[in-house]
Amino acid sequence: MKKRFFAAAVTVCLLLGGCAGNKVMIPYSSDTNSMTLAELDKGGESQLFAADLSVIPLGDDKGADAKLTAESVLLIDSTDNKVVYADNIYQKMYPASITKIVTALVALKNSDLEDIVTISHNAANIKEPGAKLCGFKEGCTITMRELLTAFLVYSGNDAGVAIAEHIAGSVDKFAEMMNEEAKETGATHSHFVNPHGLHDDNHYTTAYDIYLFFNELVKNYGSFVDIISQGIVKIEYKGPDGSYASRTFSSTDRYLVGTQTAPEGVTVIGGKTGTTGLAGSCLVLYSEGENTHKYISVILKADTGDALFLQMNELLSKISQS
């Protein structure tokens, strides 16, 4: 935990262009906001932080590619923790279903994958027009592993409500947990009100914060990487009467279902898409280059799905140049 408070402190300092004096005001922590850098550095916290993350100071954008017209774009070599490309990465953005990676992080920390989740009336009756649903009925039971798989691969919003209610008792309480996780991760420019990303003006993040969440997941949760790398999944569960049921879902990631090909020398491992009218078309990916380095790429608010994947290919092509 101390390491994460340090991460948040360093992030804020760098965003402000440097720390004046030796005092660091650490956000979200009333009992540590008077610690000095020297105190924080005892035990090697600064070295631990530097080894885990790429820190990009405000104004250090490296974006200059006219083909990358999305609102916010980021590519990081997560093996060496170096920025390859960055443009407008601290701009407040709506994440749409990329929100689901934050939900997954909270779920993996606060539940067991073999937990049995019961689908509630609320989860089974999302009425928002255009909301993507797995179609689970009230009273169905399913393991957390299967539910997270449907949630991340197919992007079913009903699965998100079920996860939230199982862990926190309500969507509102779960959103509080998401915001606490954002504080711990150092994602100081994010705020969430639901587990799925259906639009709310007070539900936002940045490309850099998405990197922080995604980096935490891919480096510490192999189960998450296993789930997001699947193109087609068969989800098994029990109906309200206890009978066996199953559904087959395809990934929303075009790379995984074969409708988009990555640039030569790049292997897409997995990722998460997101789309709403106000968020535009969004994508975060985990990929590997020919040098065996792993990369995290983020594109937020492309105009269309086609434009999103064309621009992601342009961004991934920079891996061979890094």
TrEMBL record:
Keyword Cell wall biogenesis/degradation among UniProt keywords: yes
Domain of life: Bacteria
One GO term (biological process): peptidoglycan biosynthetic process
Pfam family, one: Peptidase_S11
Gene3D superfamilies assigned: DD-peptidase/beta-lactamase superfamily
Keywords: Carboxypeptidase, Cell shape, Cell wall biogenesis/degradation, Hydrolase, Peptidoglycan synthesis, Protease, Signal
Single GO term (MF): serine-type D-Ala-D-Ala carboxypeptidase activity
Active site (UniProt): 97 (acyl-ester intermediate), 100 (proton acceptor), 155
Entry binding sites for substrate: 272
Keyword Protease: yes
Entry-linked PROSITE patterns: PROKAR_LIPOPROTEIN (PS51257)
Signal peptide per UniProt: 1-22
The Peptidase S11 D-alanyl-D-alanine carboxypeptidase A N-terminal domain, residue ranges: 66-304
Family of this protein: Belongs to the peptidase S11 family.
Protein's recorded name: D-alanyl-D-alanine carboxypeptidase (Penicillin-binding protein 5/6)
